[in-house]
Amino acid sequence: MDDAASRPVLDYWCELQCPDCHKAQHDLDVLRERYGERLEIRLRHFPLEKHKHAYAAAQAAEEAYEQGKGDEFAAAVLERHSELASRGEALLLDVARELGLDAEEFETALIDGRHLLMVDADQAEGKAIGVTGTPTYVIAGRRLDGGKSQEGLREQIEEIADGLLEGGRN
Questions:
Q1: Phi and psi at residue 8, in whole multiples of 5°?
Q2: Cis peptide, bond prior to residue 8, ω within 30 of zero
Q3: Spatial CA neighbour of 57 closest among 30, 40, 82, 20
Q4: What is the pLDDT of residues 36-59, one digit of tens each?
Q5: Of 74, 92, 88, 85, which is closest to residue 29 (Cα–Cα)?
Q6: CA triplet 113, 82, 74: central angle to 5 degrees?
């Protein structure tokens, strides 16, 4: 387990109703493909008030992680971010069903609020480090804001990750 403890971590603050986060999925897929298990990529929640269903989507993503398909769920919801705006929780439950997850448990989780603390903690941590929009990436203590432009961010992340992996330390 020593390898897992020393691998670099890329946190990305994301909002599942955000068109820019949808665009960022390609870069995240490329990073997952390139680094595999050598780079831990963690979704962090930063629901924005301007998006009515973002908070519920963040809670639903946490339920998906609990059921073993969090990354797949987040990617599927981001693919349909504009549909989320109009359909809300019904879309979240449809995506859960499509991925073979327990949609009834999703519904219960959204009602009982079991994932509220996780979403709130992510958002509070994001605010504390200066996150103001999504997507925002943090690797090795460096914050990279993708809300204005994704241009060049993946390359910056790769450069930092390569340096960390070559140095053997996070």
A1: -65, 155
A2: no
A3: 82
A4: 999 999 999 999 989 999 999 999
A5: 74
A6: 50
Per-residue confidence (pLDDT) for residue 168, from 0 to 100: 57
Q: What is the overall mean pLDDT for the chain?
A: 91
Transcribe 122-163 into DSSP letters: HHHHHHHTT--SSSEEEETTEEEE-SS--TTHHHHHHHHHHH
Band of the pLDDT at 72, cuts 50, 70, 90? very high
Q: Which amino acid is at 169?
A: R
Q: Find tokens 């986060």 and name the residue.
A: 21
Cα–Cα distances (Å) from 134 to 28, 81, 117, 156, 160, in that order, read 14, 14, 20, 17, 20
Token digits for 49?
């008030």
Name the token pair of 48. Answer: 């924005």
In the chain, the amino acid numbered 9 is: V
Instruction: Give the span between the Cα atoms of 157 and 139, in whole angstroms.
Output: 7
